[in-house]
Amino acid sequence: MAHVASWKKAKVKELADVMVKNPVVAIVDVHGIPSPQMQDMRHGLRKYASVMMTRNNLVLLALDEANKQRPGLDKLKPMVGGQCAIIATPMNPFKLFQQMEATKSAAPAKPGDIAPEDIIVKEGETPFKPGPIVGELQKAGIPAAIEGGKIVIRKDKVLVEKGHKVPEDLAKLLPKLEILPMIVGLDLRAAFEDGLLYEKAVLNVPVGYYPTMLATAARNATALGVSIVYPTKQTIGPLMGKAYREASALGVKAAIPTKDTIGPLLAKARAEMLAIASHVPGLEDDRLKQQLSAAVAPAPQEKKVEKKEEEKKPEVSEDEAAAGLSSLFD
Q1: Which residues touch 319 (CB under 8 Å, ≥6 apart)?
Q2: Which of 7, 59, 95, 250 is packed most tightly, with the most Cβ within 10 A?
Q3: Does position 269 have pLDDT exceeding 90, yes or no?
C-alpha cells in the first residue's frame, strides 16, 4: 500500500470539515488571477466565506469524504479542474455569485490567452506619434496609417475571434491601445446547497429579478381576481370599490335619488334644464338668463401662473339647481 503523506491527510480532513459545516460549498475558477490580487480577494471575502486552494486530487478526495455526511456534495466533482478553489460560506448561492462577479475587472491579454469575446480595434485616432510603431501595428494586423501627422486606425477590425488564442505580438500592443479584453476575477462554476447543485447559468440573474417577477405575478393575479369577481383578502377592497362605482352609475342612470346620487342627479337635471331653456324665447328671469349666458360663454384662457395649491372649482349647490328648475316651469 502506497504511503500517503500526513499533510495530505490533514488537508483532506480540513477541507471536508469546512464543507460539512457550511451550508453552501462552491467551486470557483481562479485562472489568470495574479497572486497579489488573489490575496486581496481572499482578504475581502474572509468576513463571510472561506477560500481554500490546494491540489485538485486532494479537493476530489475531500468531496468524497464530505459526501458521506452531506450526500450530494460529490455533484461538485465534475467542476474541479484547472486552476480552481473551494469557497465555503453561509451566504446563499445567488448572493455569493453576485459577490464573485464584483471581484472581476478588465485586464490585459497575455500571449496564448483565450479571447472571452471578439477583440476589436475601433476606427479613429491613436495615442501614438508617427514612427516605427506604425509598422508594428500593421504587422500585428491592425489597419494603421499616418494621417494629418497622427497615427490612426482606418477602420474597425476583429483582431482575435472569440475562443481563439491571442498572438504574442498583438498581446504587447493591445494595452498600448487601451484594449483590455480579459476579465480577471473569481468565476463561480457551481454551488451546492441543501442537496441541489446550482450551476452558473442558473445563478447568473440580475439583482432583484425574482422579486420583480413575484411582484408582477401578484399584481396580475389580483387583477384577474377582480376581473372574475373572485373575493380574497387582496381583491375584496378593489371589488367593493368597483361595486360602489357601478351602483352609483346605475343609480344616476335610473334616476334613483340617494345620498350619493342626488348631487350628480341635480347637476344632470340642471344641465338638461339649461339645454331646454336655451330654446325657449322671451325668458324674463334675469337669474336664469345669467346662467344661460355663463353656460354658452367661452371659457377664458387660463394664464400659466404658478400656484402653491390648486384652487377647487365651485360646485353647484342643490338649492341653486332647484331654483333654476323652478324658474323654468313657473
Answers
A1: none
A2: 59
A3: no
Domain that includes residue 250, residue range: 213-296+315-329
Same domain, 196 and 147: no
Question: pLDDT tens digits for 169-179?
Answer: 888 888 888 88
Q: Which residue, chain included where needed, has cell 445567488?
A: 94
Contacts of 254 (CB under 8 A, 6+ apart): none
Tally of structural domains, the chain: 3
Asked if the structure places residue 1 within a domain, the reply is no
Structural Rg of the chain based on CA atoms: 39
Residue 190 · residue 200 · CB < 8 Å:
yes
Dihedral sign (CA 314, 315, 319, 321):
positive
C-alpha dist (Å) from residue 9 to 75, 215, 319: 22, 50, 98
Q: Which amino acid is at 315?
A: E
Same domain for 192 and 79: yes
Instruction: Give a yes or no: residue 222 inside a domain.
Output: yes
- 259, part of any domain: yes
Integer Cα distance of 188 and 120 in angstroms: 27
pLDDT at 197: 95
Residue 254 has pLDDT above 80, yes or no: yes
Q: How far apart are CA 147 and CA 62, in angstroms?
A: 62
Q: List the CATH number of the domain containing 126.
A: 3.90.105.20
Q: What is the pLDDT of residue 108?
A: 86
Q: What is the number of other CB atoms lying within 10 angstroms of the CB of residue 177?
A: 18
Element containing residue 269 per DSSP (H, E): helix 262-277
Cα–Cα distance, 230 to 224 (Å, whole number) = 8
- Burial code of 72-82, b = ≥16 C-beta within 10 A, e = fewer? ebebbeebbee
The amino acid occupying position 149 is G
pTM beyond 0.90: the answer is no
